[in-house]
Amino acid sequence: MQNHIRQPTPRERVPRLAIDAVGLSKAFGNQAALTGLDLAVPEASVTALIGPNGSGKTTTVRILATLMAPDAGRATVFGHDVVAEPEAVRAAIGVTGQFSAVDKILTGRENLALMARLHHMPRAVAKERIARNLERFELAEAADRPVTTYSGGMRRRLDLAMTLMGEPRIVFLDEPTTGLDPRGRQVLWRIVRDLVADGVTILLTTQYLEEADRLADRVALIDRGALVAEGTPSELKKRAPGGRIRLHFAEDDALAAAVLEFNGAKLSEDGLSLELARDGSVAGIRQVLDRLERLGINVESLSAQPPDLDDVFFSLTGSRHEPSTASSSEVA
Ligand SMILES: Nc1ncnc2c1ncn2[C@@H]1O[C@H](COP(=O)(O)OP(=O)(O)OP(=O)(O)O)[C@@H](O)[C@H]1O
Ligand SMILES: [Mg+2]
Description:
The protein is an alpha/beta fold. Helices cover 36% and strands 24% of the residues. The chain contains 12 helices and 14 strands. It has helices spanning 10-13, 57-64, 86-92, 108-118, 123-136, 152-164, 182-197, 209-215, 233-239, 252-261, 282-294, 309-317; strands at residues 17-28, 31-42, 46-50, 72-77, 80-81, 93-96, 170-174, 201-205, 218-223, 226-231, 244-248, 266-267, 273-277, 301-305. Helix 4 (108-118) crosses helix 5 and helix 4 runs parallel beside helix 6 (152-164).
């Protein structure tokens, strides 16, 4: 079972960069949005751009998508400069913005047909792609209803379907799953994985750190317009202090004794368990249990949680992150 180690092809060994940005700066009046951002996105992978509100994620996406020019620095998409060769860049990209671009008076199918015309697609190709995208975004049934009758999640999916009509080599998704229910989110994750398997490069922004963790090959964390950390989710987690051990007690006396013993531990909101800042390693857990045993404190159960991307986010940006509805984040 261990024998399936495949030799990487030369191309995999040296991943090509789909996006290569160096020193991007952008200000709006005296409001700095980007302050020298570096970003490298390997081809055929998912990179998640995360950062606090206002840290410059959308600005980055807009510059890379040629919708806005940087004040300084330079960026290439598949080797084409976003300022000097915008047409070549546009030919390669698809963009779904933070705010929906669908025409609400038209039906879903008509919106897709509009995209087909913008891409000068032959009729037969258009027909096939429209059907395929309606199908994969689970919009086939609603295809001939005006978008005014769609739910928010359906509009979001249609938006994405429109982006994919041109079969871009690289797709920018700005908060693609905001407002989607868990099922809609999974549909999107599946599509992203399928696209990457077909060699498409994805740059997405998200406020759901669990989503970045699950979906992204690499995560770029930005703060105040500059890159503060970059790597695979597990590389980043190793850099974060964090992780928790949670102790549950059956008796109030035991809990009270533990509170005294573990000075600085956090009491859960329901007042029934105690949270210790530990890395959750076996050695760490053993140490805590030994200490409780020596004192004769009965612990009913214990759960350990390694550092997650929320911990990375907090420790490297020092800013508050709205806990996502998608994650079972324990950070209060
Ligand atoms: N068109 C604009 N005019 C003026 N200021 C702008 C404009 N666009 C962005 N900004 C400012 O630039 C900074 C970065 O904004 P940006 O939209 O890139 O952040 P973001 O990381 O996408 O935030 P969010 O998580 O809220 O979507 C913010 O301070 C914002 O107020
Ligand atoms: Mg944004």
